[in-house]
Write a structure and sequence with these properties.
Chain lengths: 297, 405
């Protein structure tokens, strides 16, 4: 059973098409990246999954059924812009929102304390939300999202505004969730975070699917016929290399159709060149996106 | 626990913990207590006021007006000519004078002269001059008691009887009006305040996008019904505190002030209907404000929109003085049935006159239906306008969207 199954959903607002014929699925135990630039339709897609807005057409199944009150208890959602009741204390906020997910007060308090302890925020549990820093507020928001042990966690731009320490903390928590067999959906425009965390991705632009599938397969597909080399000494003539492009800290060698990177490496080693780095050039997700977006535009 | 109940509980506790709500609830008994205290303090410090005697000049050109020159605290001083009187006026010996012209008996004209700029002659002066003239005209023709009776012919004592001919427990009069009057004013203020809370709360939740978290847990209907009931329950707490403190305060007050305060009564049916209208009023305004919050992109714009119906709350109070003069005008029937003004209008009227049972029934039925209807529309609107954070849609769009959404 898929955690999420989205089938051909579309949504238009008065003046523009926000989401156009989008389909994808997310499996349990998977970290899924929903990526694209600002205004691509990511948030609208998530809102349709959450049943906050209705799609014009298409269907969404969450945890094997159409979203109902009962399914809502089994999912956690963190919207892009964060907000909690300013006057409420940290613990009260978590417990109240957890109770709306069907948790009783006692177990909600227990789990909240556990998560506050895990994130090093136990000392702040009596503080009012308005007294917290922005980063701390985000961590509380994350706790609110996962306190009820949801099977599906959807996070909209979770890394926005987090410092490096909290970013690492968040990554750790997300990895734990995946390892526990939960489906995690990250929606973001920060491609580097997705590259690091996600197993599969859906890239959208202007409401349309651009790329969809396993991240390493996608990257392999876009792997160019070139290698990156950082070396000391004189490079000289290398058979099979058609061009050289100097970059900061490395040189890119473009190969002809017949030569493999292994042959080039063997040739360089046989010449006794001091090599600091040798890698098959894989384009970053960002580069892939720019390439795809440029193609469609 | 049921999710609507959870939201209800949260909103109720959140509201009654608000500073504004606590102040509004306690200020009524506290202010009343303070007023009683201050009055008591002043009345013990202050000596009985010394009655000051003033003088009014007059010139008798008709002749025969020379008796009864003492009228209460006012002394009438005779001058021979208008010239003498004017001189005395300018000198400050008399603050004013009047002239009885030779043809007074046939014309009735009296000329009054004063240095003061006035809208009209003070009633006390009119009465003094009138009584002075009457007394002198009748002097010697009828016995003095008759003269006195002609000046003050009646002291009306009214008793209201029931249909069986017994003396009714509710006697009407101003004593009856005071509590409903104060109560409806308080209700109006309280409704205005609670509307602010609702619009503010919903606006904040929209602005902070907390509403998306809430709606990923509960439905729009659960959210709004919970909120409206929570606010309604807070309103009930408020009115119960006020009503519970009223008898105590009245007893304290009547022992201090006496007079009109001791005639204050809380009409029996007012107590029951007061609570009913208070709760229904609260629910209606909570639902209206929920709708306003739903179509407004933020709390500030919502407040501006809420002004429209919160102003209507005060309409019956603006016109309340007309109620005393025309208690049976059809306008009052309209105001009693129109849901937004119904709670205030019904309460004011209960103090002044009776309201027909059918009117109350229609009024309450319309209120209940309005609450349900508004809540239904607000739920739809919240869903439709949830994502409109930027600008408020115009009315045409709203109506169209509510139909199709």
């Amino acid at each position: 059973m898929h955690a999420v199954e989205v089938s051909r959903i579309a949504k238009s607002f008065a003046d523009k098409v926000a989401v156009d014929d989008l389909s994808f699925s997310v499996a349990p135990g998977e970290m899924f990246g929903l990526i694209g630039p600002n205004g691509a339709g990511k948030t609208t897609t998530i809102r349709m999954m959450m049943d906050i807005i209705k799609p014009d057409s298409g269907e969404v199944t969450i945890l094997g059924e159409k979203l109902s009150e009962a399914t809502k208890d089994r999912l956690g959602y963190m919207p892009e812009e964060r907000g909690l009741y300013k006057k409420l204390s940290v613990l009260e906020s978590i417990v109240y929102l957890a109770s709306l997910k069907g948790m009783d007060r006692h177990s909600a308090t227990e789990k909240a304390n556990e998560l506050l302890n895990h994130t090093g925020m136990l000392d702040s549990k009596k503080k009012k939300i308005e007294e917290l820093s922005k980063g701390m507020g985000q961590i509380i928001q994350l706790i609110v999202t996962i306190v009820h042990d949801p099977q599906l966690v959807i996070l909209d731009e979770p890394f926005a505004g987090l410092d490096p320490v909290n970013t690492e903390l968040l990554k750790g928590i997300l990895a734990d969730l995946r390892d526990q067999g939960k489906a995690v959906i990250l929606s973001t425009h920060q491609m580097s975070q997705v590259e690091e965390l996600c197993d599969r991705i859906l890239m959208i632009n202007n409401g349309k699917s651009v790329l969809y599938g396993n991240l390493s397969e996608i990257k392999a597909r876009y792997r160019g016929n070139s290698v990156r080399l950082d070396f000391k000494g004189e490079l000289g003539e290398i058979p099979g290399v058609t061009a050289r492009r100097p970059h900061k800290g490395y040189t890119e060698l473009l190969l002809d159709g017949e030569t493999t990177p292994q042959q080039v490496l063997a040739h360089l080693v046989s010449r006794g060149l001091a090599i600091n780095r040798f890698e098959v050039a894989t384009p970053s997700l960002n580069e892939i996106f720019l390439k795809e977006a440029g193609k469609k535009a | 626990m049921n999710k609507t109940l959870l939201i209800f509980r949260h909103e109720f506790l959140h509201t009654i913990k608000r500073k504004g709500f606590i102040i509004m609830t306690l200020i009524v008994p506290v202010l009343a207590l303070m007023a009683i205290g201050v009055f008591q303090l002043i009345s013990t410090i202050e000596k009985p006021p010394v009655v000051e005697t003033t003088t009014i000049g007059y010139v008798d050109e008709a002749g025969g007006f020379d008796q009864y020159t003492t009228q209460g605290n006012i002394e009438l001083v005779r001058f021979d000519t208008p010239g003498d009187a004017t001189a005395a006026l300018i000198n400050g010996d008399v603050p004013e004078y009047f002239v009885i012209p030779p043809d007074y008996l046939s014309t009735g004209v009296i000329n009054r002269y004063t240095l003061e700029k006035e809208v009209e002659t003070p009633p006390i002066i009119t009465t003094v001059i009138k009584n002075f003239l009457t007394s002198n005209l009748l002097a010697g023709k009828v016995p003095p008691e008759t003269v006195y009776r002609i000046e003050a012919p009646l002291d009306l004592v009214v008793t209201r009887l029931t249909e069986t001919g017994e003396v009714a427990t509710e006697q009407g009069g101003f004593g009856n009006v005071i509590i409903p009057g104060i109560f409806s004013l308080l209700l109006a203020l309280s409704l205005m305040l609670s509307s602010t809370y609702m619009v503010q709360g919903l606006g904040d939740e929209k602005e902070s996008r907390l509403i998306e978290v809430l709606l990923s847990s509960v439905s729009t209907r659960q959210l709004l019904v919970g909120k409206v009931l929570g606010l309604g329950a807070a309103g009930l707490v408020q009115v119960v505190i006020w009503l519970a403190s009223a008898p105590l305060l009245l007893r304290l007050a009547s022992s201090t002030f006496g007079g009109v305060i001791s005639t204050i009564q809380i009409p029996a049916d007012f107590l029951v209907l007061g609570i009913v209208y208070f709760i229904l009023g609260y629910l209606l305004f909570a639902a209206l404000s929920a709708g306003t919050g739903a179509i407004s992109p933020n709390a500030r714009e919502g407040q501006q929109l809420a002004m429209i119906y919160t102003m209507l709350v005060f309409v019956p109070i603006w016109f309340s003085s007309l109620l005393f003069i025309f208690p049976n005008s059809p306008i009052w029937v309209v105001l009693t049935i129109f849901p937004v003004t119904a709670p205030m209008a019904a309460m004011l009227r209960l103090g002044v006159s009776d309201i027909a049972v059918w009117e109350l029934a229609v009024s309450i039925a319309v209120l209940v239906l309005s609450i349900i209807g508004v809540l239904f529309l607000a739920t739809r609107a919240l869903r439709i306008y949830l994502l409109m954070y930027g600008k408020r849609p115009n009315w045409g769009e709203i109506i169209q969207n509510l139909r199709s959404g």
